[in-house]
Amino acid sequence: MSAAPSDQLVELRHGERRVLLAPAVGGAIAAFDETHGERVIDWLRPATPAALAARDPLGMASFPLLPYCNRIRDARFVFDGALVDLSGDGNGFAHALHGNAWRLPWRVGDTSKSRARLHLRHEPSREAAHHWPFAYEATQDIALDADALAVTMSARNLSDRPMPFGMGHHPYYPRTRNTRIHARVAAMWHSTPDLLPTHAGPHACVDAMASVEGMSADAFDLDNNFAGWSRAATIAWPDEGRSIMLDAETPFDHLVVYAPASHPGLLCVEPVSNVADWINLDVDRAMKGGAVLQPGESVSARFAWTTCVERGVAERVRDA
Fold it and tell me: Each residue of 282-320: pLDDT tens digit?
């Protein structure tokens, strides 16, 4: 198929499963659902028409994080002996947040019924939402099949100097009072009130997520990074007889769980390659993640959401 204009939604289908992409809204996924009889199951929280009209990435189902994940303290860091100041990049936050790819339009490349490729090329600029003093290009290869939605993220440093780098994705899941989270992590990063990490250590949620029952999404007030992730997590709705498993390749070795008590409808379980403010943290790289790409160097990694609806549930839905 020919490339679609980037300001249009791109629909992928496989049987009764559907994905909507919003290239103009930071290369985001706008919806991932499937139909059983008259019931539509939302595997990710779908974007509303208002969020799409406003081109609000925070209102999407999931959006890419490049060239770093989460926050950078005071939007500043020193790299290779030079100060990098991101305070004027138009992000609207006290600390630089999630890079710039989520606030830029992506271009649609090759597409088919169940696959699409999205492209982004960034050149250094002082314009709002564009300032990152390193040139890079990125792609998302998004594929839908009978079991999973897979995303392969790739990036290449186009600068003539090394570039600090991190990547991830920021999915929102439907959150109910019965939602459970299953994951194995080594430690939780404790943080300041403005969500900058201080130290990694134990927390009751680490044990809760590793338990057979999993952790209730309402059990803790969380907006935290986790180190030593096994690169697999499951979000389950046992009362609905369904679950979705997130699995990832390295360097998605870190996890973010966002389950705020103040917003009981929000739940994020995010695969990321670096913890917040990694570039300013003086700790071992294995604990904080992040990377440095040399000129011309590339990185690529895949993650996927595999869905499961219990057979009895699917049959009841079809027969309803």
Answer: 999 999 999 999 999 999 999 999 999 987 554 444 343
* Strand-by-strand arrangement of the 148-157 sheet: 107-111, 115-122, 136-144, 148-157, 298-309, 242-248, 232-237, 180-183, 215-216
Residue 218, CB-side half-sphere exposure with 13 Å CA sphere: 9
Tell me which residue of 292, 197, 196 sits closest to 251, measured CA to CA: 292
Total structural domains within the chain:
1
Task: Give, rounded to a whole angstrom, the gap between the first and last alpha carbons of the chain.
Answer: 37
Q: Is the residue at 92 inside a domain?
A: yes
Q: How many Å apart are CA 279 and CA 71, to the nearest integer?
A: 10
Q: Which domain holds residue 103?
A: 10-319
CA distance 49 to 52: 5
Least Cα distance to 172 among 40, 34, 44, 263 occurs for 44
In a domain, 5, yes or no: no
Please name the residues in contact with 118: beta carbons below 8 A apart, sequence gap of 6 or more: 21, 23, 27, 106, 107, 108, 109, 139, 140, 142
pLDDT confidence of residue 319: 40
| E strand residue ranges, 184-241 | 187-191, 197-201, 215-216, 222-227, 232-237
Mean pLDDT computed over 234-239: 98
In a domain, 3, yes or no: no
Q: Is residue 196 part of a domain?
A: yes
Are the C-beta atoms of residues 101 and 66 closer than 8 Å to each other?
yes
CATH of the domain at 129: 2.70.98.10
**According to the model, what pLDDT value does residue 109 have?**
96
